[in-house]
Amino acid sequence: MSAGKSKKQGLIGELISEFRTAGNQDSAFDNLAAERLGLNRTDLHAINTIENSGGLTAGELAAATGLTTGAVTGVIDRLERAGYARRVPDPADRRRVKVEVTPKFYARADKIWGPMAADWTSRLGRRFSAEELERVTEFLRSTNELSREHIERLREMK
């Protein structure tokens, strides 16, 4: 094995380690965020998925989260009771209902994630150039695509 290939493999190993550490820290933060919002982790994952997508049908939410449609109904009911989500007619097909987040969720979320977003903006903006941030974003999109492929692989595994 060449020295260049060996170094590259070592760097990929470091990336995997740092990516896992980041995932663990994100999980710890989400545990606290869910607690502050009065939600369980499944409901927090669902509300984040709804918010990131701009609104989803129950079926789309089930597919995106890996939950059954029955479980998603319970999640949506709990999020509505908490005042964080609401069902609205789908403008593209009035027979369907979409779920969207509410202003109450945005107000609560801003207190939890707003300071972190501000730190990301200031600290990362000072440390990295626009081109470097584009590369990091490209890297994360690639890892997300890879993860989706392996989630599908595990779903099909018996």
Counting H and I runs of at least 4 residues, what is the number of helices? 6
Mean pLDDT across residues = 93
Largest sheet: 3 strands, antiparallel
- CA(first)-CA(last) distance: 36 Å
Strand residue percentage: 5-15%
Q: Are there runs of 5+ residues with pLDDT below 50, and where? A: none
Residues in helix, %: over 70%
The strand count comes to: 3
Radius of gyration, CA atoms, in whole angstroms: 19 Å
Tell me the series of helices and strands, N- to C-terminal. Answer: HHEHHEEHH
- The outline comes out as globular
Structural class label: mainly alpha
Strand order of the largest sheet: 1-3-2
What does this structure look like?
This protein is mostly helical and 158 residues long. It has helices at residues 3-37, 41-53, 58-65, 69-82, 103-127, 130-156, and strands at 56-57, 85-90, 93-101. Strands 1-3-2 form a three-stranded antiparallel beta sheet. A hairpin with a 2-residue loop joins strand 2 (85-90) and strand 3. The radius of gyration is 19 Å and the shape is globular. The two termini are 36 Å apart.
